[in-house]
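[scheduler] slot 2 assigned
[scheduler] job type: sequence-to-structure, two independent chains
[scheduler] chain ordering preserved from manifest
[runner] begin chain α
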Amino acid sequence: HAWTSSGRRTKMKRTAISCALALGTLMTPAVTPAYAGSGPIKVVLAEEADLLEPCMATRSNIGRIIMENVSETLTELDVRSDKGVMPRLAEKWEQNADGSWRFHLRQGVKFSDGSGFDAKDVKHSFDRIMSDKNACESRRYFGGMKVTPSIVDDYTIDFKADPVQPILPLLMTLVTIVPEETPLEFIREPVGTGPYKLTNWTPGQQIVLSGRDDYWGTKPEVTQATYLFRADPAVRAAMVQAGEADLSPSISQLDATNPKTDFSYLDSETVYLRLDHNIAPLNDVRVRRALNLAIDRQAFLGTLVPESAVLATAIVPPTTLGWNKDVKVFPFDPDGVKKLLEQAKADGVKVDTPITVIARSANFPNVTEIMEAIQQQLQDIGFKVDLKFVEVAEHERYYSKPFAKDRGPQIVAAMHDNSKGDPSFSMFFKYASEGTQSGFSDPKVDDLIKRASAAVGDERANLWSELIAYLHDDVVADVLLFHMVGFARVSERLDFKPTIATNSMLQLSEIKIK
């Protein structure tokens, strides 16, 4: 699927993978290949994993390797058939009279180290995520609330949230379960209940996951997955074409030329520039508005960005609850930029202060060219802009608090994933005063986030919609750019179609071998 400019989803023409193989002599008719094969595969990714820590699996470069492969969650969101929140390590759940949620856990499950799984592991996993002894990324999704787990018995656990969280089962799709004995500090080798275990990690070269004979669920057809890392999307595409790899979940549109192997997919990623409102001149709303008017977003579509990508007016994609269709994309308006900067300068704002834009290397196809083009557009209109590329671990230091005290004006280029369908997976840590990646503090924003997170039905959607408009039109929180469309190359020996979740999570159990 792709989005139209109105945010609706329209079907793109796709050619299915050919299911006919000619066997034997020319006289032998083509036959449909047998499925339910098994064997190893190779996956080539753009970014190497700096960690394989389970509580960091919400970061895409880690999650697409270990999430639901090595480290499982109590629940998971079905994105293939729209069944909603589905059981994983929890078989069922219900909301108690006091608003808390009770989860009934699957029995007979073992971790890859041979230890048994029970409610103590779930409680420890959650407490570990919330501990100040580490920097677990999944903690940020529980901002603005206090969640307390309490064990009922070996296979039953309650989670009480204040304020009450009507979507807590959906939030639990981000809580990776580790054994009770796992230290609070980060670990190098993950131990999980998933169908695979880590058997090799050679930094700079490869990561290997191997299938487990004692997995509690259905045994996947992929027996082993070797992950290779190549920054150039053309190289990744060529490796699959040459048989050196079986799958690349991210190639560029320019390389997606073979209808038998290349698939476009609705992406849940939003590319944007996070503005630090705490440092002049970015603390002036006129300067932030001028930055938005200085970028010709439309010029990127069909050139450096896929033509079917959608210009963004929110940090969440158009398929998300509360999407506000009335919020309009900032136009490209050079005259408007000059007027705003002249007004700010007349009031003493130092609009010619050099601003540093920090981007993440290999974050998405054409990231270098896109950021260089944005730098040029900003410079052409009068801004002084330096561009700096960093690897993922260093990027996180600029992106998340605590921010360096001696920093100058900074813009962090980033790509945010929300495939869950609700803004609560974005809004608190991106925009609340206490949010780990928030570049400002606004009491109205805090209030709207708090009220929306606890609301249900139309009230929830309306509050999120109000927040989206306020952030874009009044706060001018950041420079929103594109809701992306992804392209993947899949070997003809595999049966796999990418989904909205593919860029952040790649479940090997969903891959079939012909």
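[runner] end chain α
[runner] begin chain β
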Amino acid sequence: MCGINGFYSKSLSTFNDVIFKMNSAISHRGPDTNGAWLDKNSGIVLGHQRLSIIDLSVTGNQPMQSSSSRFILTYNGEIYNHLKIRRELEKTSSNIKWRGSSDTETLLEAIDFWGIEITLKKIEGMFAFGLWDKKTRCLTLARDRIGEKPIYFGWQGEGDNKVFLFGSELKALKIHPEFKGVINRDAIALQLRHNCVPAPYSIYKDIYKLLPGHYLNLKESDLKKSLVPSSKTYWSLTKTAIYGNNNQLTLGEKDIQKDLEKHLQSSVKKQMISDVPLGAFLSGGIDSSTVVALMQLQSNHPVKTFTVGFDENDYNEAQYAKKIANHLGTDHTELYVSSKQAMEVIPKLHSIYDEPFSDSSQIPTFLVSQLAKQDVKVAISGDGGDELFCGYNRYIMSKKFWSILCLMPLPLRKILSSGLLSISHQNLTKISKFLLGLNKYSNFGDKIHKGANVLHAKTPHDLYYMLCSHWQNPTDAVINSQEPGTLFNKFKPELKGLDSQQQMMVLDFLTYLSDDILVKVDRAAMASSLETRVPFLDHKLIEYVWKIPHSLKLRNGQGKWILRKILNEYVPKNLTERPKMGFGVPINTWLRGPLKDWAENLLNEKRLEEEGYFNPKFIRDKWTEHLSGKRNWQYDLWNVLMFQSWIDSNN
């Protein structure tokens, strides 16, 4: 993995000082070496911080120039099929003389031979890069299909001092003297709803995130006029899902299961290629257990696995992970952390995530990354399985819920909603323990309150949108804000032929996965200089899985049916079958206990009034209700607290 950055400027008198400071700001992403390159005639400067994974020699250092000297590349990622591409290039071009064995060099020579678009369609992996073409005098920015690797960009400054900036993280862009950092209030509203700022937006005005599966070409004329042309799509999950659904596999169930297992094995094998020590995160859930089982199947030695455990039973999966690790024979490391140790991460979060980010599982993700980094330089994760195989409870529950909801008049639903919300979440959880069939759900009271909030839904999409929202009306809380259009509303993709569950899976893939989960893992891991890889996000695997009939993903009210069948070939069913827990921490109780004073300081009414971002009444009302135990507003409050903590460090 690595950190990339660069800029275009008409004045390059201090470029060396600036670019190396920008590099230094993201040195955690690549502490092994750094480099810079500039073209004074064009005004282009490229910077790079390297985390050496493939080809540890100096021949893999960046920014790297192609053998023809036409292209200069600063690149972050891994191209898993780069050896295959090398062989293809060698067959078609007799002029290639490789200087080293890095995938960076492979990517450069492929672009030189085939061009950007063909190369992007050929490569398999995770990446973000900036490329300068000396011949056409064009800067290209590109991002991988799913959005595993980040890239920010935008114009800052005024007049002749205007600069175009790009980089892996905002902290690199902020180093440039022309960076203004004007906060985008509309983005705050998005963060309150989704606990992150979704692409293409960022927390700053005029700074954007390149969308997954897109690339952007800035010609010299665009740069001189301070223009940003529209990005182009080279791969679309939406089209993949629709095509797969329209071309379903006609094989028998056992044959599909066998084929899927081969695809999974292939993806895992590709992502196990490394010149440095490699391991895996193991939570004990279906996804990570499947990935680890297939890693161990293809490894000559015990795979190193890592788990973080907590004393609170409702949040602790370490006990399950240990049993699975023992069964598979992995070299397992677990670390139990106290609430105090976990809370010590909180002051670091604003720096790790660069912009307000409030998925509370960011805390254990950082802790398990720190743990893994002690023994390995690369960790493989099981992210993406829920979106691919219909694994989230909301896919199943929302369909059942809507079938009942649509039969009830809206006025009656509003009365029912008020009644359920009048009962505290603790009392609802207590009641569930005595009701057959409900005692299997953890945090039942919170789930009922969430269900009560969506009784106002008028369509299945409304229901889904509400389930995906923390603050239902965030603009009421954020002063002078308007929610920009997102894939949930204004830019909702055309999902013709997909049922409501499949539509949710696509939208989660495009939003929750790329803007929340992958951001969470990338920043937490890279803060520890740890590379992460995600086998479920191999685009060929994704294209295959969307051809699998939906009935093999969801069966008898249970998601991931076919994935469970594969896992049960390696791990006994009794070790994996249990209610889904997620990967969180008890923020609700922490806010009423050890974090109370910290939160009270950040949510102080006078402070909120002086800062002018939030309407104090909306914030204080939720804070008071949470402290009393009447409602559990942990997610809504954590959104605000993470913004407040972030703004505190950026003033």
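[runner] end chain β
[qc] chain β: The radius of gyration is 25 Å.
[scheduler] slot 2 released
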